[in-house]
């Protein structure tokens, strides 16, 4: 079979900035294109694939260089491991790699082939907007961790992906092999808005996931943070329903990291 290719935005190594692996050294492979439009999106450059992508400090070159799009999964693994080997955040022997976006589920075969090519040298984490359960099923065997977004409708410019989010969460929970974070970005007004409905829809899967309540980082169409009082009300709503949860802000903007 011809190897699958995907357009990338960039490859680099840093520490994880969200979720249960917060602060853990990790390589990032950012896949281009995304069918969603979040009001708080801080990476609108990821929506469209470009002719080439940036590799920040791979194993052969310290500085950023560019490679042609689209790229095979085997080449992306080589680049990610090269970045991991040179990174100041590196750990020896085992590389965690986050495939993120944009939206990686637009290219599920690429994600699966990435995991197959990486093999025992590391673990693949998928960060996804969880918009396509069929695509997720195709790559799930290659994943050790899934961070699935649950987008509250008021956080989107348009559309409602609730049914797709639920199907993705149900799939990963039933499969049981990958650990599962479900991330809800909290903007002002969600405690009185759709958060309650979302938590009710997630409740049947609460024993299979860690709920990550992430206060929004202002960007693009979102000017204000959620205030501490409303954030506490959101957490209380999760606690009352028996969720295991963490309230975690994005680390990279706080520390000025890539
Ligand atoms: S899913 Fe991610 S990349 Fe797509 S619009 Fe939302 S925040 Fe941006």
What is the gist of this entry?
By secondary structure, the protein is of the alpha/beta class.
List keywords for this structure.
globular, 258 residues, 7 helices, single chain, two-stranded antiparallel ribbon
CA distance, first residue to last residue: 35 Å
β-strand amount: 15-25%
Helical fraction equals 25-40%
Stretches where pLDDT is under 50 for at least 5 consecutive residues are none
Q: CATH class of the domain at 5-183, please?
A: Alpha Beta
Bound molecules: iron/sulfur cluster
Architecture of the domain at 5-183 in CATH? Alpha-Beta Barrel
Structure description:
By secondary structure, this protein is an alpha/beta fold. It has a domain of 179 residues: TIM Barrel (Alpha-Beta Barrel). It is 28% helix and 25% strand. The chain is built from 7 helices and 12 strands. A 10-stranded mixed β-sheet has the order 5-4-2-3-7-8-9-10-11-12, with helices on one face. The protein has a two-stranded antiparallel ribbon with strand order 1-6. Helix 3 packs parallel to helix 4. It is globular and about 50 Å long. The termini are far apart. 44% of the residues are buried. The mean pLDDT is 95. Bound molecules: iron/sulfur cluster. Iron/sulfur cluster (SF4) binds next to loops. Iron/sulfur cluster binds next to loops.
């Amino acid at each position: 079979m011809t190897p699958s290719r995907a357009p990338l935005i960039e490859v680099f190594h840093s520490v994880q900035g969200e979720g249960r692996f917060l602060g853990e050294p990790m390589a990032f492979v950012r896949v281009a294109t995304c069918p969603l439009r979040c009001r708080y999106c801080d990476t609108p450059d990821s929506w469209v694939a470009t002719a080439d992508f940036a590799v920040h400090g791979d194993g052969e070159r310290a500085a950023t260089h560019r490679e042609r799009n689209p790229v095979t999964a085997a080449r992306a693994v080589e680049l990610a491991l090269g970045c991991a080997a040179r990174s100041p955040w590196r750990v020896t022997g085992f590389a965690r790699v986050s495939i993120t976006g944009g939206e990686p589920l637009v290219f599920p075969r690429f994600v699966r082939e990435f995991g197959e090519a990486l093999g025992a040298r590391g673990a693949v984490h998928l960060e996804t907007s969880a918009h396509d359960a069929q695509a997720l099923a195709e790559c799930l065997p290659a994943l050790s961790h899934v961070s699935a977004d649950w987008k509250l409708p008021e956080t989107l410019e348009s559309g409602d992906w609730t049914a797709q989010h639920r199907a993705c969460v149900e799939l990963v929970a039933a499969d049981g092999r990958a650990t599962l974070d479900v991330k809800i970005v909290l903007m002002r007004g969600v405690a009185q808005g759709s958060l309650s409905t979302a938590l009710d829809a997630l409740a049947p899967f609460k024993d299979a996931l860690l709920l990550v309540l992430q206060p929004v980082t202002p960007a693009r169409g979102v000017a204000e943070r959620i205030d501490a009082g409303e954030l506490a009300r959101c957490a209380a709503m999760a606690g009352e329903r028996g969720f295991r949860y963490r309230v975690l802000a994005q680390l990279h903007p706080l520390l000025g990291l890539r």
